[in-house]
Specification:
Length: about 200
C-alpha cells in the first residue's frame, strides 16, 4: 500500500472521529480539519504521482482483404505503397497453429532497425489476428520498410530489453542489421511512405 493511500485512510479515520459525539468539540474541530486536509493532500499526491498514461490516438491505414486459409504471418494494414500517418496501427493475421511472438521492425532511410511495441512489447495476438502501434519519426515522403518477424523466446526478450533500455536512456539509436537476433525470422515486408514530417512527434 502506497504512502498516499495510507495518508488518505488516516484522513478518513480522523474525519469519522470528528463526526462522532463522544469527543469534545475542542478536539473534534481540529481533528475534522486535519482529516479533510490529509484526504486532500493524499488524493492530490496520489493523482500527481500515479498519472494514467495518455491514450494513444492511432490511425488505421488501408486494409487489404484477407485470403483464406491463412498459411503464414502477414500484414493486412497498411498495404504496399500506402502513405501513412506518424502513428498507425499495423495489423495482420497468422495461422491457427502459430505459437511464436510477432514483432514489427521499422527500417527507415538511416539504415537502422527499430522494433515497435505497445504496452505488451510483442504484437497483440488473438483469434488469428495481430496488431501493434507503430510510430514513425522521419521526414515527409520518406520511405519506410515495415518488416514483420516471428521470434523465438530469446529474440523476443532481446527486442523487449532493447526497447526498455532505449526508453530508460530516452535515446533510440536503432539497431544495426547484424544486431537482429538469429531467432528472428522475417516473414513479411512492405514499403510505405510518410504523409507528413514526423520528426519530434514522440
Amino acid at each position: 500500500m502506497s504512502t498516499e493511500v495510507v495518508i488518505i485512510i488516516i484522513g478518513v479515520v480522523c474525519t469519522i472521529l470528528a463526526i462522532i459525539d463522544f469527543i469534545s468539540a475542542k478536539v473534534r474541530i481540529p481533528l475534522g480539519v486535519l482529516g479533510i486536509m490529509l484526504i486532500i493532500y493524499g488524493g492530490y499526491s496520489y493523482g500527481a504521482i500515479n498519472l494514467q498514461g495518455q491514450i494513444e490516438q492511432v490511425e488505421i491505414a488501408t486494409v487489404k482483404e484477407v485470403v483464406y486459409p491463412i498459411e503464414s504471418v502477414q500484414v493486412i494494414s497498411p498495404v504496399q505503397g500506402d502513405v501513412v500517418e506518424c502513428r498507425i496501427l499495423t495489423m495482420g493475421v497468422y495461422p491457427g497453429n502459430h505459437e511464436k511472438d510477432i514483432w514489427v521492425v521499422l527500417h527507415p532511410s538511416d539504415d537502422r532497425y527499430y522494433p515497435q511495441s505497445d504496452h505488451t512489447n510483442t504484437s497483440y495476438k488473438r483469434n488469428g489476428e495481430w496488431q501493434v502501434i507503430t510510430r514513425f519519426g522521419g521526414d515527409q515522403d520518406e520511405a519506410y520498410d515495415i518488416m514483420v518477424y516471428e521470434t523465438d523466446a530469446s529474440a523476443s526478450q532481446f527486442f523487449s530489453t532493447t526497447i526498455e533500455n532505449w526508453k530508460a536512456a530516452m535515446d533510440f539509436p536503432g539497431l544495426e542489421e547484424a544486431e537482429i537476433p538469429e531467432g528472428a525470422n522475417l516473414v513479411d515486408h512492405i514499403v510505405v511512405n510518410l504523409k507528413e514530417n514526423c520528426r519530434g512527434v514522440f
